[in-house]
Each structure stands twice: as C-alpha cells, then as structure tokens.
Amino acid sequence: MKELFQHAAVTDGITVRVAVNFLPEQSRIEAGKWFWVYHIRIENDADEALKLLSRRWKITDGNGDVSIVEGEGVVGEQPTIPPGGSHDYVSGCPLSTSHGSMEGYYVFRRGNGTELRALIPFFPLAAPATAG
C-alpha cells in the first residue's frame, strides 16, 4: 500500500513530505492523551550529498501551548542523502488535546561544509470527532 503524503515543503532542492495519522489504539482519551504517528520522506534533488545534522520542531497543542523539540538527527540517525536519493523515517507525537499542529526544519551540511536549513511543512494533528 502506497502511503499518501498529505503535506510537502521544498527548500533549495530538498523536498520534505509528511503523512500523518491519528492512532486511537495508542491514545488514552479518557486520560487526556492523544497520539499521532507521522511518516517523513526527505528527498534530495540537489546536486550534492547532504548530511542531516539536526531537527527543530514547533509543536502546538489545542490550547495554543507551544513545545520546541530540538536535537541531533532524526530517530537516532544522521543520514547522508545522496543526490536523487531519499530518507524515510516514522515517529510519533503525543498531545494532551485532541488537536494541534507541528512544523519545523532540518539542518543539513553540504559537501563544502556550509549548512542549509530545510523547512518541514506545517501539518495539523486532528483526532476524529468520534475519538473524544
């Protein structure tokens, strides 16, 4: 089954695609815990290999409270993506509200040592109305 990427952003030859799904089986709505899983595909259409150094996420819950999450790499990896190549990973986001949003950026190192910031598209986190 091919995943449907719902959101995309392009920065200097890097395309970041996102597919997000609410996971009721991982949520505990009665305890005020909602959980989403997101699949990211980073495509390198630049002329050189790029090493993913770090990420910065802005996560906003349904009350407007913002959390900033920064760190090295993605899910414990700092992949080098060759020209024409891509890197996929899956991660998750818990919230204490039934909706919110995520957005951010990755920092890559080019072959010449300079850094490039690639946008992660804004995407909503929304539980189905029947989920509470």
Automatic annotation (TrEMBL):
<feature type="domain" description="ApaG">
    <location>
        <begin position="8"/>
        <end position="132"/>
    </location>
</feature>
<dbReference type="Pfam" id="PF04379">
    <property type="entry name" value="DUF525"/>
</dbReference>
<dbReference type="InterPro" id="IPR050718">
    <property type="entry name" value="ApaG-like"/>
</dbReference>
<protein>
    <submittedName>
        <fullName>Protein ApaG</fullName>
    </submittedName>
</protein>
<dbReference type="InterPro" id="IPR007474">
    <property type="entry name" value="ApaG_domain"/>
</dbReference>
<dbReference type="InterPro" id="IPR036767">
    <property type="entry name" value="ApaG_sf"/>
</dbReference>
